[in-house]
Amino acid sequence: MSEVKQALAQAADAARFAPSIHNTQPWRWVVRADRLELFAVTERQLTEHDPQARMLLLSCGTALHHAQVALNAEGWTYRVDRPGTEPLAVITPADRRPVEPEATRHLQMLRVRRTDRRTVRDEAVSETVLTELVKTAEQAGARLHVLGRDQVLQLAVAVERAEATGPSDERDRLSAELATWVGGERPEGTGIPSSALPAELPLTTVAERDFQTPGTVQAGEGHDRFATYAVLYGPGDTEADWLRAGEALSALWLSATEHAVSVLPLSAPIEVPFTRESLRWMLGGTGVPYLALRLGLQDPAHTAPPHTPRLPAPQVIELKD
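== Nitroreductase ==
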């Protein structure tokens, strides 16, 4: 295997650690001699929660950024094309340069990043760190709007309405889909196991998603009064925009991890049209909301939550001549 192809295969392998909606990992990589191609896997789409495939595309964007992080850590320069069709993106390497220390740190953060649904520390994230996260998201192609207190309360209402919306038969379908991907052990390599879920929902102003199955992790005794809430947003609603949003989410998440800041994505208000519109008005009608986020300092009393399972490399990476 050539040096270029080996680097691309390693980048695709690193992308297996990317976060995705309910850990569906809805991506597939094709490694060719001179390029790396990213495809969406609609068989792992949440058709009830995400019929427009927005969260699928955002998830693929996080994997795309993770692959870039791996290439950066090896000193590769490259071009990324996002045609918005199949493939969703193509990474074409060029040459190599000395590795920046920041690139190495980002790769390290890729390995330790977690989704932590437990309570956060009773200490606010500093303005310095928030400013850095805002800058990181912007450099990656999206924007991060930090919510004020009144807007946090509006978000809490939007989340509550999103969870309760729809006729009973629709809620039954949503519940059935959740049951497919969440809870128990996950030997098949996808979904959220009970070991990554709190045993009970923590008492918070903004409710976390009720997965309707208890986990095995103690949620903690704190509250979210010291958490920061934000909305990741951007200018457009195309496939390429949602892919970019995923890249920005990955970039800011790795930066947050470096600062011991926990990131909890809140997709429920994005999944329902009228609550998504509520978030858009929080942005002054100036952008398309991609995801709500809870940011908080990790509680030192908590041990690191386990990694969610990952699909084996042969199921998501294909090597071609």
